[in-house]
Amino acid sequence: MLSASHMPKTARLLFAVSLLVTLLPTGGSDRRAVANAETDVPAATFGAPEFQAAWNRQDAPVAAGQVARSWVWGPSPGIARQEPYAEGSGGTRTVQYFDKARMELNSAAHTQSPWRVTTGLLVAEMVKGKVQTGASQFEEATPSEQVVAGDGVEGPRYKEFAKAAQAKSPDKTGEAVTDTLAADPALRVPSMKYAHFAPETAHNIPTAFWTYMHQTGQVGTPNAGKTEALFDWVYLLGYPITEAYWTKISIEGREYTALIQLYQRRTLTYVADLPAGWQVQMGNVGLHYYAWRYGASAGAEEATGSGQAPTPTATATAAQHAFVTISGDQFVYANAPVKLKGTNYWL
Predict the structure, then answer these.
(1) Checking CA distances to 340, which of 62, 248, 277, 281 falls within 20 to 30 Å?
(2) DSSP codes of every residue in 172-215
């Protein structure tokens, strides 16, 4: 399993700082919301019991070291806040950001409904440059220039998938996955076939991702210790909005061949060279989206006591808006020491 633990202290600190810089948008949204210190809930605190219940079921066993699989939401909650939503109570709704996604409290649904907690179409918004503020309401924004996967400063960016997201594909079930993002004669593509065609968006899903979507595993409360299907893939990811593409990504300074596919709510990355359980991972869509929309990290906006926090900007320092910080030679996430678990934290 890849880790930064083998790196010298100085190199690790520089690595962390460079990572924090990548969380800030390089040319992100041209709209910036003002954080509200009266309503924002600090990171590491669940914004609603329903959010904690959703996280507990899938990620509590990972956090406890009981299973070796990649995160569904992330190691800990980030900022919870009220966001504009036309159909919400008072025109807003409670949301909370995690590494991999955003949870939304659907107050119109019954407390026991599976739709009590929804998860936004964040990837579609970043690709199109449209921020959803209601069931059929959107605000224009600049498409995200952030790198979709890996921890490098170079790589495929959300905005570059706009054309691919508009295209439709025929059913390729059983055919080899051979599409690449750029002509590269040195790119050696692992063997992979398409397993399913999604007619809803006219895109094909590779075997690795299809298998990942239907995995079973140990879950947390309320059925702690039992083996169940981990999630409903349409609910969690949405439908694919692009085909899958082979490309190169950088992880801790090493280049890997990766298969990337964008879905309405999430991104999936497959890296054959990673250990089993970590080969397919969800991208850090929650972190990317928050940085794109607000110009800050989703983990550490501090209340100022004045009722409003300053408008975040792309020039904010890493120390002010650090999602991962450094204390001595220790990485710190949400005021707690970080145990690095391969590349899953950074993708």
Answers:
(1) 248
(2) -TTSB---BSS--TT--PPP-BEEEEETTTTEEEEHHHHHHHT-
